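Q&A FORM
Asked by: J.P.
Topic: structure of Zn-dependent protease

PROVIDED:
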Amino acid sequence: MFLIYLIIIIALPLYSQFKVKSTYNKYARVRSTSGMTGREVARLILDRNGLENVKVVETQGVLSDHYNPMTKTVALSSDNYHNASVAGTAVAAHEVGHAIQDAQDYAFLRFRHRLAPVANITSNASWIFIMAGLFFSSMNNLLGIGIVLMAVGVLFQIVTLPVEFNASSRAMNTIVELGIIRNEEEPHAKKVLNAAALTYVAAAAVAVLELVRLVLIFQNRE
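REPLIED BY: S.T.
REPLY: Here is the structure written out as tokens.
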């Protein structure tokens, strides 16, 4: 049983990373019919939503695209920023989706932002208690504390899912409504967004599985 569990928690993240990279690389080579670069797509959607104050900037790396709510900045990786591809269009629209969530005070996004600093601390601290609790079987209470701390990090992973799914949904609706992509490009853009979403699903699934495993260990020791 443990071997199956180990295979799942190793294989699932690896598969999700492979899927997102292979899908992105495939459609990054497909030029969008609109001929708009990722920067132009992001700027158009932002302006149409009255978000002229949000900046679009270039950032280094591959698939390093993100939205920074503190600086009100959509950062696009160099390829997406400069090139006109189906993948770049989908990614740019997705990140702008987060900017729109921020502007509309989307509940899950706000909750995730508030939870993030707490989750960072508890996730790091949890393993100190968990390892101590696992190593010293007589100190099961330490394992219990570690599980509680770890649960905060797992909650953060779960809350991230609706945030990402909603941003992708907004992205698809917007690029279709504005005519940025044509009908034949819609399935390709969806594949890029779905592959990206899979990484978050995999991370959440692995986190939940690990939490469940530790809870079972804790219960069996009582």
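FOLLOW-UP: Helices lie at 2-28, 38-48, 78-82, 86-103, 107-135, 140-177, 186-221.
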